[in-house]
Amino acid sequence: MTLLSTTLLAFSMSTDAFAAAVGKGTVIDHPRFREALRTGLIFGVVEGLTPLLGWAIGRGASHYIQAWDHWVVFILLLALGIRMIRGGLSTPDPDEATAAPRGHAWWLVAATAMITSIDALTVGIGLAFMETNIFLTALAIGLATTLMATLGVMLGRRLGVLIGQRVEVLGGVILIGIGTTILTEHLGLW
């Protein structure tokens, strides 16, 4: 993977965390930078570790499907991209913005981070079939997610849930683009 692909992948993986962080920022009563950074770090660590776990799972299975691994990567990224686009286009739940706490318990933030990092686990599985430095890619995903989730909490009060969800659409489109590029390059069409 090129530096550009890694960067795009890292930021597309962070869009769902950004959307969740924006949602958290909308319900926190005047979020402070410290709370936003704590949330960002929790999201970033979880999102950075899950591709490593997925990569380990994928490496274990790679010799079984080596002949069609490019199709596996394409299908995984296509499915994730479509799921992210659908999530970004869905109508936000109005019941989510009922209370205004000062912050969120770390375990609640960690649980949300684990839910939003399922896609990073799947991407890690796909990366096991490619020539890539998984540690640098996971670090890039973790750093991008830390940045985006911290920013999401801080912007949440002003932007609202709607803009956070729309960013997820962009992340989905980027994932589909990366998957299509990998497939066309592997098939010799590009």
UniProtKB/TrEMBL annotation:
<keyword id="KW-0406">Ion transport</keyword>
<feature type="transmembrane region" description="Helical">
    <location>
        <begin position="68"/>
        <end position="85"/>
    </location>
</feature>
<dbReference type="GO" id="GO:0005384">
    <property type="term" value="F:manganese ion transmembrane transporter activity"/>
</dbReference>
<keyword id="KW-0732">Signal</keyword>
<feature type="transmembrane region" description="Helical">
    <location>
        <begin position="167"/>
        <end position="184"/>
    </location>
</feature>
<feature type="signal peptide">
    <location>
        <begin position="1"/>
        <end position="19"/>
    </location>
</feature>
<dbReference type="Pfam" id="PF02659">
    <property type="entry name" value="Mntp"/>
</dbReference>
<keyword id="KW-1133">Transmembrane helix</keyword>
<keyword id="KW-0472">Membrane</keyword>
<keyword id="KW-0464">Manganese</keyword>
<keyword id="KW-0813">Transport</keyword>
<comment type="function">
    <text>Probably functions as a manganese efflux pump.</text>
</comment>
<comment type="similarity">
    <text>Belongs to the MntP (TC 9.B.29) family.</text>
</comment>
<dbReference type="InterPro" id="IPR022929">
    <property type="entry name" value="Put_MntP"/>
</dbReference>
<dbReference type="InterPro" id="IPR003810">
    <property type="entry name" value="Mntp/YtaF"/>
</dbReference>
<keyword id="KW-1003">Cell membrane</keyword>
<protein>
    <recommendedName>
        <fullName>Putative manganese efflux pump MntP</fullName>
    </recommendedName>
</protein>
<keyword id="KW-0812">Transmembrane</keyword>
<feature type="transmembrane region" description="Helical">
    <location>
        <begin position="105"/>
        <end position="128"/>
    </location>
</feature>
<dbReference type="GO" id="GO:0005886">
    <property type="term" value="C:plasma membrane"/>
</dbReference>
<feature type="transmembrane region" description="Helical">
    <location>
        <begin position="134"/>
        <end position="155"/>
    </location>
</feature>
